Every structure is written in structure tokens, then in C-alpha cells.
Amino acid sequence: MLFRWAAIAVACLHAAYLVYVVVGGFVVWRFPRTFLVHVVAAVWALVVVAASLPCPLTTLQNMLRVQGGQSPLQRSFLDTYVRDVVYPAEYQNTIYVAAAAAVAVSWLGLAFRQYRRVKATRHP
Questions:
Q1: 35 φ, ψ to 5°?
Q2: Spatial distance between the Cα atoms of 87 and 81, rounded to a whole number of angstroms
Q3: What is the Cα–Cα distance from 57 to 21, expressed in whole angstroms?
Q4: Tens-digit pLDDT profile for residues 73-109
Q5: List of residues 6+ apart from 102 with CB closer than 8 A
Q6: How confident is the model at residue 18 (pLDDT cuts 50, 70, 90)?
Q7: How many beta carbons lie within 10 A of that of residue 69, not counting itself?
Q8: What is the dihedral sign for C-alpha 19, 25, 27, 31?
Q9: Is the model's pLDDT at 121 over the cut of 90?
Q10: Distance between CA atoms of 101 and 95, rounded to whole angstroms?
């Protein structure tokens, strides 16, 4: 039973990671020192998607599921829990572009905020 709960915890962590990738840049506006954490999270997500790499969180979840007597996921985390649950599969590319746009807007907004802050301190 412990392994099953651990697999659920990993699935929750995976979902939180995906949310953080999309909106974490806006969190950085409030906590600028976390920018590098968001960069690493966003770049890792891009690499996994672009190179079709297996996600280590899915691998860990599957390992825990097997240890708990369950079968591993037959598809990826996104295919199992997100695609066709949160949005229709035919919008996958649109969702990827929207997520990338959210990251870009958050980073541009952060740069603008930093620019204004520096400008305000130089010209009181």
C-alpha cells in the first residue's frame, strides 16, 4: 500500500511541476531569486517534449506502481492524466504554444519589472 501512495504522491508532484512550468515565471515576479529554478524546470520540460524523452517522474511513478502491485501506465503522464481530460488531444500543439507563450510573457514581464526597478534606483 505504501508504494501505491508513493506513486500517487509522484503523480501529484508531476502535476504540480507542470503547473509550475506554465505559471512559475509569474511566481518569479514575487520571488526573483527563484528565476534559475524556473529556467531549469522550463528548459527540462522543453527538452523532454522536443526530444520525446521519457520523463523521470513517469518512470519513477511506474516503478512505484509495479512495486505496489499495479501495472505501469500504458501511456505517458500527459496522455494518461491530461490530454483528453483537461483538453482535447487535437489541441496538443496549441497547448504547447500557449504554455511556451505564458513562460515567454512571464520572463519578458520580469525583465521589464527589473528594468523599471533599476531605472528607478538610478534616477530618483
A1: -55, -45
A2: 10
A3: 14
A4: 999 999 999 999 999 999 999 999 999 999 999 999 9
A5: 22, 23, 25
A6: very high
A7: 9
A8: positive
A9: no
A10: 10
C-alpha cell at 110: 520580469
**pTM: predicted TM-score of the whole model, two decimal places:** 0.88
Mean per-residue pLDDT, 107-118: 92
Q: Whats the size of the chain, residue-wise?
A: 124
> Which residue, among 42, 24, 44, has the nearest Cα to 34 in the 3D structure?
24
For the chain, the three-class secondary structure string (H helix, E strand, C coil) is: CHHHHHHHHHHHHHHHHHHHHHHHHHHHHHCHHHHHHHHHHHHHHHHHHHCCCCCHHHHHHHHHHHHCCCCCCCCCHHHHHHECCCECHHHHHHHHHHHHHHHHHHHHHHHHHHHHHHHHHHCC
